[in-house]
Fold Phosphatase.
Amino acid sequence: MARKMIFFDIDGTLLDHDKRLPASTKEAIGQLKRLGHEVAIATGRGPFMFKDIRDELEIDSFVSYNGQYVEWKGKPLFVNPIQTGLLQQLTEYADEKGHPLVYMDIKTMRSSREYHVHIEESISTLKVPHPAYDPEYFRDRSIFQTLVFCTIGEESKYRERFPDLDFIRWHQFSMDVLPLGGSKAKGIEEMIGALGIDRSDVYAFGDYLNDIEMLQFAGTSVAMGNAPDVVKKAADHVTRDVGDDGIWYGLRMVGLL
């Protein structure tokens, strides 16, 4: 088989419901690489939040922050930070609404509040601690993604107020905030364009709302069995649950293993 490029989401795709890497997934990715395929990660997480996974799987290329920061073999390939002026406006508006923010660059993340229960409850699902307090963190560095913490149903207020930003819910208490048009699909497009890889040779595996554009973009896409129906409908194939050897089964389903 000719060389293919396969992108994997992390949470709910590579990692199971307990944030563990199934042994079958690790073995499957090792086999892909031994067959000569390129393997990369495509995630909403920042680079500092999944270094351990990259090290364990020996993957050195990734699309992070839902496409806003892309690395190939350890070197930056595409960067798309949020404009500081927009972040200032977003900060002021969220403060009026009583909604905390978390600012994220390539090294770490910082919170606009010393502590907030919505930050704790959502961030803890990623097995990372409540970020440190620094409400000025966005002013003098490149911020690739921001998190706004509000309940389901409040998205429309932000979308109406900030037409130059995209808001994507990933938790009942939190939304990803990206530059308008930002997505994993955009990051993948930038990577394969630079590498000269045809879109038809791209495979993608994902399980949640921020994976929809990626699944629609890839030449062949696979939704995890644990994905919501709207995500499954965006994919070409649906594999088993992540906890039921979903990656291994999906790779066999599409003929890569």
